[in-house]
Structures are given as C-alpha cells and as structure tokens.
Q: What sequence folds into this?
C-alpha cells in the first residue's frame, strides 16, 4: 500500500533536481576546508539570515547543541519555553554537552512574556547558576506550528541586552513562520545572536541544518562540530541539495499551510477531536483526541489501514503537511477521519 504520510515534514524526499545536483556536486574534504559546495551553502545561509557566517550541520539538534555551547559555560542556566523542542525533544544535550541547566518558562502559544522571563533571570551566587542565554523557537512545533510574533523577538532582545544575555533561535521551520506572518526571516534573525534552521523539513533536502552567527562564533562552532563527531568529508553531495532547498523551496510552503488548514476545518467537529482551526497557522496540526470507543493507538491503526499515517503525542495526535502531501492525500485523510469517527460508525 502507498501511504499518505502526515507524520512529519522530515519524511520529504529530495526533488529530482536535488538528486541531479547531488550526483554532479563538486566536492572536497570539508574538515580541511576544501569543499566548495559546502562553502557556497554556508555563505548563502548567512546572507539569507543577515549574519556573518554559517555552519553546515548534520542535524538541527547538533546545530542547537553547538549554539548553546557557544553562548554558555558549565554551571550556568538557559531560559527555555516549557514546551520547546530544544528542552523536551533533543536528548538533554544542554546538560549532557554544555553542563547547563534549562529553566522552563510558560508562554502563550510559544510566546514568552518578557516580564516572566525577567523574573526568571538569576545572578550567580554559591547556590544558584547565572542565566546566560534565552532560547526561542519559531515556528513552535509543540504549539501546533504556531508563529511567535516579531514583537516577542524584539522584547526578548531588550530583556537580553538589559541583562547581558545572548539569544538563540531554534528556527527549524523559520521559513514557515516567514510565509505565515509576512515577516522576512532576516527580520526574525536580526534579534537573535545565532539561528539554527533546517534544510531537511519543509525545504525537502535529504539531510542537514544550518547554524548562522558572527564569524568568530561560527569559527568556534566549527571546532565544536568536530568534537561532536559532525566533521564530514566530501559532504558537498549533501550541501548541493541544501542550496536548492534554500533558493527554490521556501516559496511553496504556503501550499502546505493551505492544506493543513483545509484538513483542520474539515475534521475539527468530528467526535473525539478537540481542535480550533484558527490555531492552525502553518503546516502542523496537533489535536487532543478523546473518543468514547476508540483509543489513540486504535485510531492511528485504523487510519493506517486506510492508508494514512499520523503521529501520536501525549493525549493527542500530530499531522504535518509537506511537499509530498498533495490535495488527494488531504482528501484521503479527510475521508478516513469521517469513516472512522462519524457518529454512526461502530
């Protein structure tokens, strides 16, 4: 059976043009600084975000872990949003790699209150760590792809400057945020000292994420990447599709947003689903699921039997639209929802 795979935008396949670029890529040893295709991608990524330099990383988690290590010292503290990916879903690299403690702060759909952040900033003493970094996320994965407003970025920058802190942006899906809000990605990046963004989600490259910042920090980050095992050799074969992802793929993300909204509107009133379609701003749909007869595992299996894949969360379900989900896939998912959850179904 061919499945309509809504589990994540990480399942996207590279385009034919990307595959051709991989085959034809000019390569060199990137650890020795000899891969011209990687160099081109890193310069391009920095320019797009308005930063001095870029670093190609195997994954977003590695990019985030390098950024935290750049801006902190052991025994310090990092303010994070309580449902953020960097805090909940990246294998505790803050404590394991950087030796820092995350301090989670509540938010309104990913947007932390600047006054609440101020209250959580701590000065060092014998009992408590010094706060050194604020981490933001846009779009916010666990808030259903919510777009964190630009005003929040401006406010966090002011708080950071007032207290001598740095700001890192986990911008895994920052291009989705840009399309949904109309705010250029460079404008979000302006208020952060470093930005990580993924090439391998909605932009459809097979592998890779970028970390951008000032040149000195990226030079240090390159050494950290090597220490973490992320130094790769003839990696231009992966950088080549990354260039296409960055130059040709952002413009089509609005199609994913439209399809996610259509799916949400068509299904939100079915029994067992708790979802406000107004909360679906980008390509991620997260809804609570509590049905009188069907458990989440049972529902997901019934969906799979009908050729639709989704992902379970604690108490809920996530579905993500992407390049490899078309209108027919959305129709298939809607039909599956209705067949399984219609009031008369058993």
A:
């Amino acid at each position: 059976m061919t499945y309509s795979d809504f589990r994540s935008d990480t399942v996207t396949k590279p385009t034919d043009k990307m595959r051709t670029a991989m085959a034809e890529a000019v390569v060199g040893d990137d650890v020795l600084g000899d891969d011209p295709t990687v160099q081109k991608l890193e310069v391009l990524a920095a320019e797009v975000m308005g930063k001095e330099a870029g670093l190609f990383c195997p994954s977003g988690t590695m990019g985030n872990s390098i950024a935290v290590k750049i801006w902190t010292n052991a025994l310090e503290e990092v303010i994070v949003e309580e449902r953020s990916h960097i805090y909940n879903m990246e294998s505790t690299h803050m404590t394991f790699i950087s030796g820092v403690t995350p301090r989670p702060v509540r938010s309104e759909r990913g947007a932390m209150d600047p006054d609440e952040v101020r209250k959580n900033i701590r000065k060092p003493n014998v009992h408590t760590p010094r706060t050194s970094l604020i981490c933001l996320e846009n779009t916010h994965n666990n808030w259903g792809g919510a777009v964190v407003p630009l005003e929040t970025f401006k406010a966090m920058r002011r708080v950071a400057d007032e207290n001598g802190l740095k700001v890192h942006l986990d911008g895994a899906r920052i291009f989705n945020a840009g399309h949904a809000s109309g705010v250029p990605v460079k404008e979000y990046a302006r208020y952060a000292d470093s930005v990580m963004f993924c090439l391998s989600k909605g932009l459809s490259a097979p592998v890779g994420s970028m970390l951008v910042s000032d040149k000195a920090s990226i030079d240090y980050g390159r050494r950290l990447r090597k220490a973490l095992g992320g130094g790769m050799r003839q990696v231009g074969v992966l950088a080549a599709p990354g260039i296409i992802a960055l130059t040709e793929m952002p413009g089509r993300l609005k199609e994913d947003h439209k399809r996610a909204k259509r799916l949400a509107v068509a299904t939100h009133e079915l029994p067992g689903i708790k979802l406000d379609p107004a909360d679906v701003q980008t390509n991620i749909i997260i809804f609570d699921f509590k049905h009188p007869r069907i458990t989440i595992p049972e529902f997901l299996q019934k969906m799979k039997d009908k050729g639709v894949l989704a992902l379970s969360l604690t108490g809920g379900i996530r579905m993500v639209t992407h390049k490899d989900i078309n209108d027919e896939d959305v129709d298939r998912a809607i039909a599956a929802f209705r067949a399984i959850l219609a009031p008369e179904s058993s």
